[in-house]
Amino acid sequence: MEDTAVRQASLRRTTKETDIALTLILDGDGSFIGTTGIGFLDHMLTLFAVHGGFTLQIEATGDLDVDTHHTVEDIGIVLGEAFKEALGDKKGIARYGHFYCPMDETLVRTVIDFSGRPYTVFDVEFTVPYLGTMEAEMVREFVYAFAVHSACNLHIGCLYGTNNHHKAEAVFKSWAHAVRQAVTRVNSTAVLSSKGVL
């Protein structure tokens, strides 16, 4: 019998630096609602939601008067935790996903495994310090926070490219499509592991 349960999670994380409320629906309508307070990150998360087919709602406040680090990292943490909660025991999912995303002169590849063992390889170089008002190095930190807290093995690499905005867009688009493949239901009764558990 096919599992038709809604896969979703609603979480809130409050620290002295940030306050983040996030709702994720895995089998959603491809929409991003709310704001992170960082225009560039809102743009990237819109791409992530649209290309992954997720419904993603975020309301975040943080110490942006300092820089974007705490806000970006903490949103990555909460998003990762939401995926982990929404996937539950991971019965019936494809587990693995991969996608190549071309963006004009840029090509990015993402490969993901919701293995339960967090690991990140991020091979993308930015040649500018900022993307909008967000520090370019925070793309890596966001990816790392997501991988650790969703407990996935995530490899993202830019095979070639020169435009920094294109690189970032291709990262989030390829990542979204790879995640979409990995969380797709393929068997409602089994976990795709010889151990029987992920």
UniProtKB/TrEMBL annotation:
SUPFAM superfamilies: Ribosomal protein S5 domain 2-like. PROSITE patterns: IGP_DEHYDRATASE_1, IGP_DEHYDRATASE_2. Belongs to the imidazoleglycerol-phosphate dehydratase family. Pathway: Amino-acid biosynthesis; L-histidine biosynthesis; L-histidine from 5-phospho-alpha-D-ribose 1-diphosphate: step 6/9. Pfam families: IGPD. This is Imidazoleglycerol-phosphate dehydratase. The gene is hisB. Coiled coil: none annotated. InterPro entries: IGPD_sf, ImidazoleglycerolP_deHydtase, ImidazoleglycerP_deHydtase_CS, Ribosomal_Su5_D2-typ_SF. It comes from the Bacteria. It is an enzyme of class 4 (lyase). Its EC number is 4.2.1.19. The keyword Endoplasmic reticulum does not apply. It is found in: Cytoplasm. Keywords: Amino-acid biosynthesis, Cytoplasm, Histidine biosynthesis, Lyase. Signal peptide: none annotated. The keyword Lyase applies. It catalyses: D-erythro-1-(imidazol-4-yl)glycerol 3-phosphate = 3-(imidazol-4-yl)-2-oxopropyl phosphate + H2O.
